[in-house]
Amino acid sequence: MKFIYFLSKKYLFSIFKDKSLRLPALISIISIFISVFSLMVVMFVMKGFEIKVQNKILENFPHIILSSKSKNDLDNIENIISYSNSLEGYAAYIKGNKFELIKLKAQSNMNANPKNDEKNIYYANVSKNFLLLNKLEKNDYFEIYIPSPSTLKKIKKIKIKIGEEINNSESIPIIYFNYTEAKNIIFSQEFIEVKLYDPFKSKDTINAILNKNNHLKGQIVDWQTMNINLFNIMKLERVSLAIFLSFLILIASTTIYSNTTSMIFQRKSEIATLLILGAKKNHILIVFILVSFALSFIGYFFGTILATISTNLLASQEIVDLFDINLSFYGIEGFPIIFSYSYFIIISLFTFFMIFTASFLPTSFYLNKNVEELIVRDNK
């Protein structure tokens, strides 16, 4: 072991004294640094974005939706916090040449808007983004057009008096009606919304609901199924970016391969001498792998340090305010970046594997000869 340590240390420090090896070594270090830093930051951003989107879905949308056309028994089912009857539909707001799609919503457990005494006028709470865009305020009036679910030829026009201003994480404006009054409005959907203590056990909860309500088969769906296309798209983007950025590490490993090859050819006389004196090929192999690892680890170390610092900085509110990062349109507050230990470990293992491969292949190829052949090659 002392022999391996001594020789590794000697070869490592000699690289920075030799002009022909110094530049390739610096290129290897910088390549590993850039590739590790880029891959980690991008994957942390993707992870943060996915988690923030998932949290917004769980916060603002029901965890389970089921049909309300028949009598359902949802009492005494484990994991259910609450459930409520819900009405949902869509309408159009038209003013001059301007057309805007609006979502209509009413829930039985929602804080009921007070009924309006004015005839043929509906009192409703309206999302903030719609009011700001159309310069409307509390107690103002506006009209919307609601198409019939069965035919577009039947369109109902209703007048609305604005109640409270509601913060809405969805990009589409929402009008919240009194549930009782909403029965008189044309809604395209009527269902029951269920909230859970643990949304990630939604499949088990659905099975429990079906055990008590067998007639609901095919009429019940959870939040993961409802948003499966969105999750698949985010997964595809994450995998595509990971594969693309992994090529940076692959390119960096080629510089390590080239650098290791150069070191071997410059040290071939010493290698031949050491083999004659009885040194084992495995020990020499380990020496060159350790030297390559030591050089690459410099780039890896500073890449991970900078990636960690960048993650903490981007996640801070000060940076968000400094660069005026505003993703509230997508229902996301702050910059979506989260340090992920799983991604950190995967990227580190992949980097070390590529470093090992890039240093092992040229060294083992050179040493995969008998001693006599190496001596003859050296004399040439």
What does this protein structure show overall?
This protein has 380 residues and is an alpha+beta fold. The chain has two domains: 2-56 and 230-379, no CATH class; 80-196, no CATH class. The protein has helices spanning 2-15, 19-60, 128-134, 179-182, 202-212, 223-226, 228-266, 268-276, 281-315, 317-322, 341-367, 371-379, and strands at residues 64-67, 80-95, 98-107, 121-127, 141-147, 155-166, 174-177, 189-196, 220-222. Strands 5-6-4-7-3-2-8-1-9 form a nine-stranded mixed beta sheet. Helix 7 packs across helix 9.
List the helices and strands and how they pair.
Blueprint lengths: L1 H14 L3 H42 L3 E4 L12 E16 L2 E10 L13 E7 H7 L6 E7 L7 E12 L7 E4 L1 H4 L6 E8 L5 H11 L7 E3 H4 L1 H39 L1 H9 L4 H35 L1 H6 L18 H27 L3 H9 L1
Parallel strand pairs: 3-7, 4-6
Antiparallel strand pairs: 1-8, 1-9, 2-3, 2-8, 4-7, 5-6
Helix pairs in contact: 1-9, 2-7, 2-9, 2-11, 7-9, 7-11, 8-12, 9-11
Strand order of the largest sheet: 5-6-4-7-3-2-8-1-9
Count of DSSP-assigned helices:
12
Whole-number total of structural domains: 2
The parts where pLDDT drops under 50 for at least 5 residues are none
Overall shape: it is elongated
Average pLDDT taken over every residue: 79
